[in-house]
Write a structure and sequence with these properties.
Radius of gyration: 20 Å
Low-confidence stretches: 1-16, 23-27
Pfam families: ABC_tran
Mean pLDDT: 89
Order of helices and strands: EEEEEHEEHEHHHHEHEHEEHH
Number of helices: 10
Strand content: 25-35%
EC number: 3.6.3.27
Protein name: Phosphate ABC transporter ATP-binding protein
Helix content: 25-40%
Enzyme class: hydrolase
Largest sheet: 10 strands, mixed
Keywords: ATP-binding, Hydrolase, Nucleotide-binding, Translocase, Transport
Strand order of the largest sheet: 7-6-3-4-12-11-5-10-9-8
Length: 286
């Protein structure tokens, strides 16, 4: 422990885990999404409890923590993907530009139109490269200038130059990294404001991972990004703010996830406020 100029005790920076990439802007930015006391239930199981945090515009917010701590569950709640799971229920409040996305009369499909998602495993449709990107455009009635929209999305996902001469070929013939970038193109084609990414690099090799990270740093200029990752170095490299989750067992013996700490990435990794965060990022548990 060290003592700062005000006399308050602080933790020494953690060697080897200081962020090497992005640093959050000191200028306050608009909050696009806010979670307030969010909990997620699967039937009688209270899987995630009391999560509160803001998501700032045009920043990358990372969620890290051990397996089973609820970070992916929280991510899926942000665009109502948990609605598709029988027995799932979200409590508390999640607002998008101040409006409760679980409020009466809110269409979950409209929520997902504005808050897109890229999953852990690339999931291209068994269609052509062109039709994969065009799919969301067609079902959302965005059929004007379709070819231009597809090209724009593929360029946005840094894939156009690699596939422009093979748009009629099956997307399943692409490499794993290309398939993931195709899924990103499919997500951004409908021009969402927020992009959720659930472990987008977990199945990729280091070279493909680096391409996705470079892409995220480009996409954040136009989109607000929330990423779940098990890779702490990745969170340190790409994110502006980081939320650390952990898990515990209640009196009934049920495991549940909860938010331990949320802060600017640089501060959370170099000087965490909670000892549980420090234990995790230094490898003492998790």
């Amino acid at each position: 422990m060290t003592v700062n100029e005000t006399g308050a005790k602080t933790r020494a920076p953690i060697a080897g885990l200081a962020p090497q990439g992005r640093t959050a802007s000191p200028v306050a930015t608009e909050t696009v999404i806010e979670l307030k006391g969010v909990g997620v239930h699967y039937g009688r199981t209270h899987a995630v409890r009391d999560v509160s945090l803001p998501v700032a515009r045009n920043q990358i917010t990372a969620m890290i923590g051990p397996s089973g701590c609820g970070k992916s569950t929280v991510l899926r709640s942000i665009n109502r993907m948990n609605d598709l799971i029988p027995g799932a229920k979200v409590t508390g409040e999640i607002t998008f530009h101040g409006k409760d996305i679980y409020g009466s009369g809110v269409d979950p499909i409209a929520v997902r139109r504005h808050i897109g998602m890229v999953f852990q495993k690339a999931n291209p449709f068994p269609k052509s490269i062109f039709d994969n990107v065009a799919y969301g455009l067609r079902i959302n009635g965005m059929k004007d200038n379709l070819a231009d929209r597809v090209e724009q999305a593929l360029r946005g996902a840094a894939l156009w130059d690699e596939v422009k001469d093979n748009l009629k070929k099956s997307a399943l013939a692409l490499s794993g990294g290309q398939q993931q970038r195709l899924c990103i193109a499919r997500a951004i084609a409908v021009q969402p404001e927020v992009l959720l990414m659930d472990e987008p690099c977990s199945a990729l090799d280091p070279i493909a991972t680096a391409r996705i990270e470079e892409l995220m740093n480009e996409l954040v200029k136009d989109y607000t990004i929330v990423i779940v990752t098990h890779n702490m170095q990745q969170a340190a490299r790409v994110s502006d703010a980081t939320a650390f989750y952990s898990a515990d067992v209640d009196e009934a013996g049920e495991r549940f996830g909860f938010l331990v700490e949320f802060d600017e990435t640089q501060r959370l990794f170099s000087n965490p406020a909670d000892p549980r965060t420090e234990d995790y990022i230094t490898g003492r548990f998790g």
